[in-house]
Amino acid sequence: MADKAQIQEAIKAQGEVVRRLKAEKASKDQIDEEVAKLLQLKAQLGGEDGKHVFVLKTAKGTRDYNPKQMAIREKVFNTIIGCFKRHGAETIDTPVFELKETLTGKYGEDSKLIYDLKDQGGELLSLRYDLTVPFARYLAMNKITNIKRYHIAKVYRRDNPAMTRGRYREFYQCDFDIAGQYDPMIPDAECLKIVYEILSELDLGDFRIKVNDRRILDGMFAMCGVPDEKFRTICSTVDKLDKASWEDVKNEMVKEKGLSEGVADQIGEYVSMQGGMDLAERLLQDPKLSQSKQACAGLADMKQLFSYLQLFQVTDKVLFDLSLARGLDYYTGVIYEAVLSQMIQAPVVAKQNGALPGDEASVSVGSVAGGGRYDGLVGMFDPKGKKVPCVGVSIGIERIFSIMEQKAELLAEKVRTTETQVLVASAQKNLLEERLKLTTELWNAGIKAEVLYKKNPKLLTQLQHCEETGIPLVAILGEQELKDGVVKLRKVASREEVDVPREELVEELKRRTSKLP
Amino acid sequence: MADKAQIQEAIKAQGEVVRRLKAEKASKDQIDEEVAKLLQLKAQLGGEDGKHVFVLKTAKGTRDYNPKQMAIREKVFNTIIGCFKRHGAETIDTPVFELKETLTGKYGEDSKLIYDLKDQGGELLSLRYDLTVPFARYLAMNKITNIKRYHIAKVYRRDNPAMTRGRYREFYQCDFDIAGQYDPMIPDAECLKIVYEILSELDLGDFRIKVNDRRILDGMFAMCGVPDEKFRTICSTVDKLDKASWEDVKNEMVKEKGLSEGVADQIGEYVSMQGGMDLAERLLQDPKLSQSKQACAGLADMKQLFSYLQLFQVTDKVLFDLSLARGLDYYTGVIYEAVLSQMIQAPVVAKQNGALPGDEASVSVGSVAGGGRYDGLVGMFDPKGKKVPCVGVSIGIERIFSIMEQKAELLAEKVRTTETQVLVASAQKNLLEERLKLTTELWNAGIKAEVLYKKNPKLLTQLQHCEETGIPLVAILGEQELKDGVVKLRKVASREEVDVPREELVEELKRRTSKLP
């Protein structure tokens, strides 16, 4: 550790940085970050008693999960993994960091949000930004040409966190992808079926899945007169339509990205269109769009997609929406995004994070799933450029967690964080050994059992532990029970008690707990 | 991206670095790292056709898990989590990175192995090195004074990887810890019970759990004449006894750490001792040790521990071993480590990684679990130094994976990577729509079903897919079946076929698949 004089020097310098930013009226966010650094430095000097004082927090934009949050998370994961497995998916895992150059050039304007590791000698590494690029690297590296896989893992983005809305710098992605050369639109339709099944099963209220196609967007841009090299950046601008008004989006197109007003207005007409298979059919006759080969290919596939979606019984929630653009560079065909219809009240989360309830806290959670086709990404990695067509979907699990947590809080649901079936207890002193012996018998028989780590706990303390943690049964030992070769089995909820012969206890517990929810 | 001239400049400089290291006869490892950097730079220049050529690899010391490895991993995790839940544990999660200073000063000589994140503005962050320090930070931050929790997550160490032996730079830890003020040695004994249960259930062959106590070691060091300030560093040296001979260890004590030969020899006598409760009793009478208060407290607790281990029925595998020291700084009481008895042959893994089979590949995997009591760590984080006593164990899951993978390979076990119960197939053309319709019925009823993404697949292709991936049943549709309102259900293994009425298919599948393993 640096010596005191060095630290004091650093504190002085950092104090300057903060003062300068405040004078320059820099963003609150920027100032906060530099203040945090200053506090860390001050903490190194230690408290008055010379003890080192730690800044007790998690890194900005990240959070711990407590046991209750983990119980909810486990439930959500089980539903999602259950769906992926029902559709015959395998799973893989990749490292949390990749060679930096593996990620370079894949995320368009968002590449600046990638976390890099410090160069401590050796390779230059970055934390993964999503699971899709590592998946493509995995396929190219192992020369895999077809696979249906899911991958659930954390990804990292140096974004501006909005934690009340479930936006973090470290967050889970739940990805399902199908790689391989298949007949058109069948895997694409299955991805949408999966989104439909998961959102229905999680019971998050009504939702819509918007679909579009990059080829339709590109054809539309071309026919409206957008220069080729501006397709991707205009795409990013269109993508803001879910949060911004058309006026703002048009403004960005004209003032920042240099389109003429006439071109922007033509785009404006198209991106207001929504419909189903009928819209695809109508646009195939559109005088402008029908002149673009790309657009026609996209529209024909859109029709095909809707016909499969009918067979999959999901068209009631799917909407062909020309304003859907998606931010990422690598999409080449169908794209989609699921949004919840309800507005979410977020007082609970806001309170937890010490924020004031207000505008920010009660907004729509927005997109909860998104994806699309990316036929070129694997080829970027392959030395010979060999392509592997891919389509996939990513479930926005953090937003779903936020909603589930709020629901549990609003309904004052009691969430159990352990699965313990029985507490081994005693009403008298000096029975620790007997309690441990019985607990051992239960563990060895596969029963989920607990025992308090005290020599002589009071019975009341033991019963309270059951009520607090939701343990349904207590096995009580006393001198008399030991003499009679029985155990007093008590139901915590009803206080019913019955003596069970010791040698039948395991069977009786198995019988009773198999009926528990 | 940098321009061509800049890259060529960098390549020249890096080439110099490599040449210099080779001339200096630097370690192979160091040279390899710099060569890797050089190759990355060269790759940026692109191939002959101007296409950017990627280095297709994972970061040094890390690996992808393919579906087969994931299937094995899932099985191992289920066993371990099952055990943790049987003992009433909750689970938490913490971010993959912490404020750098949270980790500083916790790991003794190993702190140099911590991965830092690049300073991109904002906080200084490091990847977690273990799950114990983040756990202590979590307890102090949330003022939690008792909890029994498990945490399964990846940790990061810039160590020299030995991947054939299951040693990686990114690897899983499976931690179980009990925090709280309880009667002595009960939670400690439960940790050992858990190690015993997990290693037995995973069926990894015979094993031993060595136990010792930091207080016994410190008392022993004091009585042998080691100066106080050398306790921790001598502890690190003693810890090498599982891999190095006494001569080497003594050499390090005398030549590197400055002990006199007489002191080292006295230590040598003690660290050769092994036994059970009897050894603890004998050492309580030892003329030297019995003069150390610390040692006596440790020995009395060791006796108590063994008495609980008897009740837990695990003493057959537990060994009180005075040479056990454990590397980490934060232990304050009981420490333990589990080792497998068998030597592991690792030809398969060695082959996979392109290494030659040889000495390195066929060595013992060594320790597969370890832990101990750390009563001071939470207090380091608490502003007022308030202590929360903790004891815990970490399962060395990567080594266990390596063994399970080798076992599966040696036994030529067929590992299924999906759970699909039935493939929906057809023997005739133009039945894609009918196949999709039936698959939808099955998915909606919760049956795990697949369908090939082809308009007109051959029946043989469909049956081969079942055999390759282990799908046990095929539901075959044809013109005749559709007319008769039936589905032909075929068992892949026996080729038995039977017509099932369409409306009874779901029930029939549920009946059949509930009997599957």
TrEMBL record, chains A, B:
Name this polypeptide is given = histidine--tRNA ligase
Is the keyword Cell membrane assigned to this protein? no
Q: Which SMART domains match?
A: WHEP-TRS (SM00991)
Q: Which UniProt keywords apply?
A: Aminoacyl-tRNA synthetase, ATP-binding, Cytoplasm, Ligase, Nucleotide-binding, Protein biosynthesis
Group of enzyme by EC: ligase
Q: Give all residue intervals belonging to the Aminoacyl-transfer RNA synthetases class-II family profile domain.
A: 61-417
NCBIfam families reported for this sequence? hisS
Q: Which reaction does it catalyse?
A: tRNA(His) + L-histidine + ATP = L-histidyl-tRNA(His) + AMP + diphosphate + H(+)
**Per its UniProt record, what InterPro entries does this chain match?**
aa-tRNA-synth_II, aa-tRNA-synth_II/BPL/LPL, Anticodon-bd, Anticodon-bd_dom_sf, His-tRNA-ligase, HisRS-like_core, HisRS/HisZ, HisRS_anticodon
Q: What EC number(s) does its UniProt record assign?
A: 6.1.1.21
This entry carries the following GO cellular component terms, namely: cytosol; mitochondrion
Domain named WHEP-TRS: residues = 3-59
